Amino acid sequence: MLTHDSAGFRLDGRPLRILSGALHYFRTHPQQWPARLASLRAMGLNTVETYVPWNLHEPRPGAFERLDALAGFLDEAARQGLWAIVRPGPYICAEWDNGGLPGWLTTRVGRRARTSDPAYLAAVDGYFDALLPAVAERQHDRGGNVLLVQVENEYGSYGSDAAYLRHLADGLRRRGVTVPLFTSDGPEDHLLTGGTVPGLLATVNFGSDPEGAFGVLRRHRPQDPLFCMEYWNGWFDHLGEPHHTRDAADAADTLRRILAAGASVNLYLAHGGTNFGTTAGANHADPPFNSTRWTHSPYQPVTTSYDYDAPLDERGAPTRKFELFRSVLAEFAAGHPDEARHRDDRTNELPVLPAVLAPRTVELTDSAPIPFGPPADSPVPPTFEDLGLVHGLVRYTFRVPAGRPELPLTVEGLRDRATLWVDGRRTAELERGVAAEPVTVPGGAVAELLVESLGRVNYGPLDAAGKGITTGVRHERQYLHGCRAEALDLNQLPALDFGHQHSTAPGPGFARGVLTLTETGDAFLAVPGGHHGYLWVNGFLLGRYDTRAPLATLYCPQPLLAPGANELLLLELGDAAPRSVELRRR
């Protein structure tokens, strides 16, 4: 069993320094798990850490999906000789949509999420009932590889409901979790007092100044071992910002100082991966919002790429940071063979990755209109959640009453991006948190708003207002009542009508091309001439592309491609008419 005191951890009586790397099973294609995990071992790590996103596994109330994914990942980690740390939430942040909380739940309970509210706790209990058996049966004390399980995530940065944290900890124990439980928070007094639980291991998260961070932790928990649960050796990207990087030598120096303090560590991240589909989250700057040259709104969507400038890049290739980290880890393994020992003596070699496909252009040959679902009529615009939609598009249609002059039209509570048509004419582009140029609309006009959802806020005061139009549409001071809403679920596309050649007219719509391959590999896909939209490969939604993104391409893992014909499908939503998809080196 795993025990700990102020001197560190002991596993079955032998000293163990936990050298962990974060690698999220939901951000990497399952067929690539073996190579990614082998790369962690090759770096010199003995443990892998993963979050568990609740909304991935319960997208609708009571409808649990893909619960075997976590079990499969933990089993593969065990085959690769790695211990595991599991962080099941219920909230995870992770720059993931809604911080992992289901949108249907936060819409229902609002600000009562992450508290001891009975309705929220009942939903958490149902989730834990479904998820935790797979974790409990893979614990170290049952012959598995799970060493530690987290209670919530950085709760001190959000709230102060001690009863809520105790309910979670007791719930984990009741469901068979017997390994040590822990919390993780920033190294500040108010965060540690708000987020820790008496009797449970406390850890800290930081990117620099390990001496100062551990000093704060020691002051609060002199009996606990030093553990940096998130060593931020890189950072994530927002739309409109340049790609974040951190000097590799500086990052390696901080890692060396963490280990020199005698601490255990979890690299956040060892491998970032990709926010496939519509899973990327968002942040929201605290008011008053101070604009910078990079951002023009307090609402800051996270990019599809979750490269994070990690030691293993988005496709799993080692970087300069990987090499320096491996040297630092080897230095401390040589000095402390018992603490840093692996579970077996296999050779820790880097796996061979597939090649990146050579640059080429794939022409788009067919077009299709957007196949919206059946209309729903409502006195007020329904939110996406009202329509049972997690992410996608909704076309809202209003008719302005006749017999009135041309007056300003205002959309209140836009979540998150929209195109306005008036009497069939494209009139304005609207964006959450961005002041729009005034638009006037005459009486009797038909106003259509095509609204696209981006990530739900994943950190800080969570936005529980839902997606779509969350307040209403006003003609001057008067709300327009009587709305027709037509939805499209981007994660479950209906059949598309490709009965004609690709249109060169700008505007929203689908386009298709065929990539013919003799052999497969990893690929990076770009949409030259596009503005923003979505890209599928053989029916799999890679994610959102956007001219504002810091990385101009979307990563396509080799397992999604096959020899022969591969369908490339895109949905362009801006005022553009892309004619092709390009394969690039990056």
Task: Give a written overview of the molecule.
This protein has three domains: 18-277 and 299-335, TIM Barrel; 360-368 and 493-584, Galactose-binding domain-like (Jelly Rolls); 376-489, Jelly Rolls. 19% of the residues lie in helices and 30% in strands. The protein has ten helices and 32 strands. Strands 14, 25, 26, 27, 28, 29, 30, 31 and 32 form a nine-stranded antiparallel beta sheet that branches. It is globular, with a radius of gyration of 25 Å.
List keywords for this structure.
586 residues; alpha+beta; TIM Barrel; Jelly Rolls; 8-stranded parallel barrel; 32 strands; 30% strand
Tell me the structural class.
alpha+beta
Largest sheet: 9 strands, antiparallel
* Unreliable stretches covering 5 or more consecutive residues: 337-343
Count of separate DSSP helical elements = 10
* CATH homologous superfamily annotation of the largest domain: Glycosidases
Rounded mean pLDDT score = 94
Q: Helical percent range?
A: 10-25%
The portion of residues forming beta strands comes to 25-35%
C-alpha termini separation: 45 Å
Q: Number of folding domains?
A: 3
Second rung of CATH, namely the architecture of the largest domain: Alpha-Beta Barrel
What is this structure, in a nutshell?
This protein is of the alpha+beta class. The chain is 19% helix and 30% strand.
Question: Could you outline the blueprint of secondary structure elements for this entry?
Answer:
Elements (H helix, E strand, L loop, with lengths): L1 E4 L2 E4 L2 E3 L2 E5 L9 H11 L3 E5 L2 H4 L9 H13 L3 E5 L15 H7 L8 H19 L9 E5 L11 H13 L6 E5 L3 H7 L5 E6 L3 H11 L6 E6 L15 H13 L3 E8 L10 E3 L14 E3 L18 H16 L24 E9 L7 E3 L13 E8 L7 E9 L1 E6 L2 E7 L8 E2 L4 E7 L15 E8 L2 E2 L3 E7 L10 E2 L7 E9 L5 E4 L5 E6 L2 E7 L7 E3 L7 E9 L7 E5 L2
